[in-house]
Amino acid sequence: MQTLGAQLARIAPGEVVIEAPILETSRQQQGFAHAALTFAIGDTAAGYAALTRMAPGHEVVTAEIKVNLLAPGRSERLRATGRVIKPGRRLSVVTAEVHALNGEEETLIAVMQGTMAPVAL
User: Fold this and answer.
1) Domain residue limits, the chain
2) Alpha-carbon distances of 14 from 37, 51, 81, rounded to whole Å
3) What confidence score (pLDDT) does residue 16 get?
4) Homologous superfamily (CATH) for 7-120
5) Which pLDDT score is estimated for 29?
6) Per DSSP, which regions of 56-104 are E strands?
7) For 69-110, what is each residue's pLDDT tens digit?
8) Would you call 32 helix, strand, or coil by DSSP?
9) What is the arrangement of strands in the sheet containing 15-21, beginning at the earlier edge strand?
10) How many other C-beta atoms lie within 10 A of the C-beta of residue 35?
11) Are strands 77-86 and 15-21 parallel, antiparallel or unpaired?
12) Do the beta carbons of residue 63 and residue 114 sit within 8 Å?
């Protein structure tokens, strides 16, 4: 996340928000946010959201995740909001929404759904 310039913006039980600038190194050939940036911050927000609901002494890994890219990231900044839909001892179902931010305007550019697995430390 450091390489992408991403930062935690909010942490609550079952919800995590991550924001990242769209750096020149994170743009695709047409100048929009690369899907890899969108996926990385969405996956991370969803994973950290799952971690907020796991037992102490555990980390989390992505078991699987699907992304639907809805619109190009035409902005200077992205925000990913990860949420836990159903926590579990072996797998937690999560979602993430990624928005492109232009001043006060927000455009939904991706939705994700997946499962996270706990890993004992």
Assistant:
1) 7-120
2) 22, 8, 10
3) 98
4) Hotdog Thioesterase (3.10.129.10)
5) 95
6) 58-69, 77-86, 92-102
7) 999 999 999 999 999 999 998 999 999 999 999 988 999 999
8) coil
9) 7-12, 15-21, 77-86, 92-102, 105-120, 58-69
10) 15
11) antiparallel
12) yes
How deeply is 60 buried, as exposed, middle or buried, from its count of CB atoms within 10 A (0-12, 13-18, 19+)? buried
**Residue 30 corresponds to which amino acid?**
Q
Return the structure tokens found at 98. Answer: 């990624």
pLDDT digits over 17-61, tens only? Answer: 999 999 999 999 999 999 999 999 999 999 999 999 998 999 999
- Residue with structure tokens 């305007």? 105
Size of the chain, expressed as the number of residues it contains:
121
Q: What are phi and psi of 57, to 5 degrees?
A: 85, 15
Return d(Cα 96, Cα 46) in angstroms, integer: 6
- Structure token digits, residue 95: 């979602």
**Helix (DSSP H) and strand (DSSP E) numbers for the chain:** 1, 6
